[in-house]
Amino acid sequence: MASSMLTKVTCLAMLCLVLGIPIANSAPSCPQVQQTLAPCIPYLTNPGPPPPPDPCCNGYKTLDGQIKTPEDIQDVCYCLKPIVENPKLNISALASLPKDCGMDMGYVISPDMDCSKVN
Fold first, then answer.
1. What domains does the chain contain, in order, with CATH numbers?
2. N or C, fewer C-beta in 10 Å, the chain?
């Protein structure tokens, strides 16, 4: 009887793991993108000399590691759009942020970026 219950619990746990795999590999949500890049906001509103602070660059690197497909790139671009339209951000620092962190997002981050064309 106990063996049967253990088997059922094990099967349920395996099912949860298998069903969770696609969720774990999906693009980050907009709130996750915003939270990941939040350490960049002070630098982008009052930039100093490059490179940006480590927490900012680490956020970009984390985000880059979560992007797997062209659709993910577009999704993240759409998430960035409201952030980069903030008039308090330094546009020049914003555009150079990925490069200054040693990365290439595949597109220039700016208020006028066309997310439908990035991939």
1. 28-101 (1.10.110.10)
2. N
